[in-house]
């Protein structure tokens, strides 16, 4: 510049393509590095989460097994954080203690039932001998005889329950349809005597893993219960339904049914509806059935059969249950 005027201009031409390429490559490297770092972090987080949660899943499965009656289920305290390993050991100790207490309870019930059966049998014999010396139709003797027989049934059921809780299931691949047909046929004379229509329908064949003796006992208890409460002229329908994971036997009656509150308690030991106390029974039959079925991975559920009645579903698995 001279005297404030621009005399000349210098133009510098410097190419920037190479610089831009280097900057772009740098940003690309940074982006790729961040993406790889995120992938590594996510992978590590997933692996760490799996490592932490695996013992929790195993503990949850063992807890469920114990809740449904498989008391020998335990947790391997070999993986996961130290805190979870300590929790697994504590859980196993608790399960051992619970199993010991239940075993002592079962032994007591079995011993008491067994020890009381002989004196009760002698007492019933004396009642029968006494009845021979009294006028025929004596109401007091009849009442004592009835109560004695009821007590004998309760003791038999208690012994059966104690044995059921201690017995391993003898699982076999079983065709459920002929087994169910056999039990229905054995109860049909009683149904005919009461004027109840006992009907079997459903699939022509359906296999499942079950203990035939336990399943037969459970069906006997359920069908007996249905016939007790179904009035003459009504149906008791037994239906075999094969499913993807289980085969079910549904026993639906047209009796008075149960309320929602009663449905929550049905199957509990010694529980009987206050509306049906005059019906014979010990209140242990369905409890025994539940224990027998649970030992083989089966179950028994109850629901209302509209407009009135009870629907009982006995389920046994299609696949062989894994031994805990």
Automatic annotation (TrEMBL):
Cited InterPro entries: HAMP_dom, HATPase_C_sf, HATPase_dom, His_kinase_dom, HisK_dim/P_dom, HisK_dim/P_sf, Sig_transdc_His_kin-like_C, TCS_sensor_his_kinase
Bilayer-crossing regions: 27-54
Location of the HAMP domain: 50-103
Keyword Transmembrane: yes
EC number: 2.7.13.3
Broad class of enzyme this protein falls into: transferase
GO cellular component: plasma membrane
Residues in Histidine kinase domain copies: 111-320
A Pfam family of this chain: HATPase_c
Record field: catalytic activity: ATP + protein L-histidine = ADP + protein N-phospho-L-histidine
PROSITE patterns, sorted: HAMP, HIS_KIN
Keywords: Kinase, Membrane, Phosphoprotein, Transferase, Transmembrane, Transmembrane helix, Two-component regulatory system
Listed PANTHER family: SENSOR HISTIDINE KINASE TRCS, SENSOR HISTIDINE KINASE YKOH
Designated name of the protein: histidine kinase
